[in-house]
Amino acid sequence: MRLLLAASLAGLLAAWPARADPGTEALAPFLDAVAACAGRPDLSLAVIGPEPGQTAWSREQAEEVRLAVESRLQATGRVRLAAAADVVRVKALREGTTGLSGPEAEAQIRSAFAGDASVFLVEPRRAGETASLRLQAITRSAACKATSEPLTVPIRVGAGVADVDAEMERAVKAFGQAAPNATAVEVCPFEAEGGHSTCAGALTDRLLIALDAEARSANRILKGGRLEVRRRPPGIACAGPVTARGRFLTDRERRSWMELEFQRDGAVLAPTGRRRIAVEGLGCDPTPRPFLDHLAATARTDGGRLAVAATATPFSAGQRLELRIESRARQTLYCWVVAADETAFVALPVRGNPASQNPLGPGDVRRYPRGYGLDEIVAGEPFENLFACFGIPGGLPPELAARWLAAAPGGEAEARLLQPPEVLDLVEKIRAVPGVTEATARIVVR
User: Which of 167, 201, 248, 322 has the greatest CB tally within 10 Å of its CB?
Assistant: First the structure.
């Protein structure tokens, strides 16, 4: 009797229509419209994801939303997904196993985008622990598009931690409400409390993205509003009718915080106050460091191309100072001595000294200063500096090379002491030169 009842119940449940998932059911009109656009019922879709400049979600949350959308599309049973957003991962996997030629890589990229339509996530919004968006599909020929009704998907939000991009968006919106007629804003680099941190630069970048999105917003454009966003170089006094100033802080529990405020003619507009943030997705190191430690930690080092070492650590008073420079690739060297107070003076090349201006080749080893025919340097009072070299194939671009040589020693003239704003600006610009390699060594006298 029990077996018969169980069999009857199983049959009844099998015959009973399954309850539709409201998340996938809501996609039916959208997929019908896409199928009509593509002219076929079985669809291959390439889910591209949200725009890179969106500020509603962090990068991790945007990826989470994209994957949630893909899962819902697959759950409809009507869609096959192309690997558009994952082509870089597939390419890396193939190159790490079988290797890919240029034509093969191009063919793979084309295949990844070869769906019937590309799907973009548009009108992103965030409310608490949910994300709201629309799907917009555009066919391969761009002759037809379809847009879904708003969808809502869950996202993870750390307890008590403000999302960086969302916080920036809120601050920019508050600024826009406080100063609706502002036409320009000077963005001062974020300052790290207690030293230097790469997270300060990362926060500056996120603020620039949020301000750029505001400058290009449809509401501002339709009203004829104009907002020019200018980034001040590091180390230069930030001034202007409207400025944005931020700070990055860490506490004893290694938690990260940010503060941001806009100022107009000295008056504070729309301050965020101290907001706790998660920096894991920013790709930065929150540790505040003294300047020399920060400069060495962020250097674009490659021991396979360039190496620098002091011949003694530390040097004693009265001992001859010497650095060993080993080049393992063809490159022109630009070396300087940097102090803890962010000043510096150029060491190489020396004007009028061809040996210091000629490129080094693989296997070349030089001793500074004797290897360049320069006077010996004898250690005196205790100090600690950083000897740092940039190696650049083909040399610096003309403008940067002229700036560097203008501060270099030559003839009877000594090197000009570079002040912090110029040091920071040169570091930023030289590190942006393609192919640059750095090597550093401490010069310590005890």
Answer: 248
* Rounded (5°) CA angle 357-389-337: 100
What integer is the mean pLDDT of 190-198? 92
Distances (CA, A) of 128 to 105, 153, 320, 331, 377: 41, 11, 64, 53, 63
Measured N-to-C along each axis, helices 102-112 and 87-97 cross at an angle, to the nearest 10 degrees, of: 150
Burial class (CB in 10 A: 0-12, 13-18, 19+), 249: buried
The model's confidence at residue 321, banded by pLDDT at 50, 70 and 90, is very high
Residue 117 corresponds to which tokens in the numbers above? Answer: 């339509």
Q: What is the DSSP letter of 351?
A: B
Separation of alpha carbons 100 and 156, rounded Å: 37
CA distance 350 to 374: 9
pLDDT tens column, 346-355 = 999 999 888 8
The answer to whether residue 266 scores a pLDDT higher than 60 is: yes
Amino acid at 226: R
β 365-368/323-327 pair status: antiparallel
Nearest to 308 by CA among 341, 339, 334: 334
| Residue ranges with strand state E in 10-58 | 43-50
Q: What is residue 386's three-state secondary structure?
A: strand
Name, in order, each residue with C-beta under 8 angstroms of 128's C-beta and a sequence gap of 6 or more: 157
Rounded mean pLDDT, 106-113: 52
Among the residues of 227-329, which ranges form H helices?
A: 291-297
Structure tokens at 163: 């999302």
Please tell me the distance from the alpha carbon of residue 8 to that of residue 95, in angstroms, as a whole number.
Answer: 56
Burial readout 321-350 (b: 16 or more C-beta within 10 A, e: otherwise): bbbebbbbbebbbbbbbbbeebebbbbbbb
Contact 208, 253 (CB under 8 A): no
Q: Contact 262/175 with Cβ under 8 angstroms?
A: yes
Report the C-alpha dihedral over residues 263, 267, 271, 274, rounded to 10 degrees: 100
Kindly tell me the sign of the dihedral angle through the C-alpha atoms of 367, 369, 374, 380. Answer: negative
Residue whose structure tokens are 């939303």:
65
SS3 category, 194: coil
Beta bridge partners of 378: 320
Instruction: State phi, psi for 69 to the nearest 5 degrees.
Output: -65, -45
End-to-end CA gap in the chain? 95
The kind and range of the H/E element at 13 are helix 2-15
- Could you give the dihedral angle defined by the CA atoms of residues 290, 291, 296 and 297, in that order, rounded to the nearest 10 degrees? 50
